[in-house]
Write a structure and sequence with these properties.
single chain; 301 residues; alpha/beta; TIM Barrel; 11 strands; globular
């Protein structure tokens, strides 16, 4: 299916509402395409492959380096059904290091930079990445900014038509409750079958019908606090019994856990992309779901 004729593919799950747009539950996170080792033409091909397979939700950020330019070169002019979602709250310093950029004026500048790099008129949604707690960078000094002040700026950007919806990332349950009057389209927190510290936030998303977009849905080798799902013995055993991969089991569990979960696994590999997207069509048996649910119980695996 070409970019011009794409539709949220039922094989990818969904569709689910995201800031008033209908998206397939299997999306694509572009961050891994930033790596210098990834050939530019291969990165463009992966983006086109994702959209051709029915993906219509791309997750990006201007501070991901070349990723927005890759999206533009691969896919512009954009199909009306493609939802480009970005993240603000961080930037790169003169040495290329990721640093907090939490002040309202910085958030506005990041939205404008995303739009310019993507050559887009509007971002489907923008996730405000709070940096109050790990993983990643932490706000200090003047970068400790009121959530209400940030939301006021994002509301103004939404009213101006620059963004379609407001999302939150790396927030607590209390912060989500505080932000609800602003109209929250989605929440991105780290979350996996092995790491459910964000369950209270997810429960509030359930209560308010908010889309849940877990980052590091399979854990991360880069953060010791986020165990790798694909290394877990229970996950591997279920995968072997079903004839699928451990990664597919971890992703399929996420989709089964909440019907408004949207996944954005990233990869620079065409084969891994196809494998990830195939998770959208996997239905885990009740016994497998029960075993996976137990992994969050102390001593459960």
């Amino acid at each position: 299916m070409t970019a011009a004729g794409m539709r949220p593919d039922s094989a990818l799950g969904g569709p689910v509402d995201l800031a008033g747009r209908r998206v397939a539950r299997m999306g694509f996170g572009v961050m891994q395409l930033e790596r210098a080792a990834v050939d530019r033409e291969a990165a463009l091909a992966v983006l086109r492959q994702a959209v051709g397979a029915g993906v219509n939700h791309l997750d990006t950020a201007q501070f991901y380096g070349r990723c927005n330019a890759l999206i533009r070169d691969a896919l512009a002019p954009y199909d009306d059904e493609l939802v480009l979602v970005s993240k603000v709250g961080a930037d790169r310093d003169a040495d290329g290091r990721l640093v907090p950029a939490q002040r309202p004026a910085e958030l506005r500048a990041q939205v404008e930079a995303n739009l310019a790099a993507l050559q887009a008129d509007q971002l489907g949604a923008v996730n405000l990445r709070r940096v109050d707690a790990p993983p990643g960078i932490i706000a200090r000094g003047e970068q400790v900014v009121s959530l209400d002040d940030q939301l006021a700026e994002l509301i103004a950007l939404r009213q101006a038509g620059k963004i379609g919806g407001i999302g939150l990332s790396n927030v607590s349950a209390g912060q989500l409750e505080q932000a609800l009057p602003a109209g929250i389209a989605c929440v991105q927190n780290s979350y996996s079958v092995l790491d459910r510290a964000a369950e209270p936030v997810l429960n509030r998303c359930r209560a308010h019908g908010i889309a849940w977009v877990p980052f590091c849905p399979l854990g991360s080798a880069g953060f010791a606090s986020l165990p790798k799902v694909t290394d877990n013995a229970t996950v591997r055993g279920i995968a072997a019994g079903l004839g699928v991969t451990p990664a597919q089991v971890g992703l399929a569990w996420q989709l089964a856990h909440y019907d408004r979960t949207l996944l954005i696994p990233g990869t620079s590999s065409a084969a891994h992309l196809a494998e990830n997207l195939a998770a959208g069509a996997i239905t885990l048996p009740a016994a497998a779901l029960a075993a996976l649910d137990q992994l969050a119980v102390p001593g459960g695996g």
